[in-house]
Design a protein that fits this description.
This protein has three helices and no strands. Helix 1 runs antiparallel to helix 2.
Length: 106
């Protein structure tokens, strides 16, 4: 796949944004611990770190969307595939939902 100049620029921004998001995650976790331990201003700093984290993930989302546009995953297809594969994986010859007759000991 050839990446054009727009995608390369967005990729650079996405990489930097991912690093900012990682730092915001670590800081947010530290602020959260401090908030529960001491309270006060640490809760506000945790909220700010969460907002920075959410905003920093937007360029990453846009960059990944460039490579997945036109591809969709529908859950119904995955579920129907799983139903077909599960009996084969488990060695069953029929449906897994088939009822068996319960036999009681005399």
């Amino acid at each position: 796949m050839i990446i054009g100049p727009d995608a390369a620029a967005l990729g650079g921004l996405a990489g930097a944004s991912a690093l900012v998001a990682a730092v915001a995650t670590v800081l947010g976790a530290a602020f959260l611990v401090l908030f529960f331990a001491k309270g006060g201003l640490w809760g506000l700093l945790n909220d700010i770190a969460s907002i920075v984290l959410m905003l920093a993930t937007i360029p990453v989302l846009l960059f990944l969307a460039m490579f997945t546009s036109g591809r969709t995953v529908s859950p119904g297809v995955l579920i129907s595939t799983m139903k077909k594969l599960m009996p084969l994986c488990l060695g069953a010859s029929g449906s897994l939902r088939a009822r068996t007759k319960i036999q009681f000991a005399p």
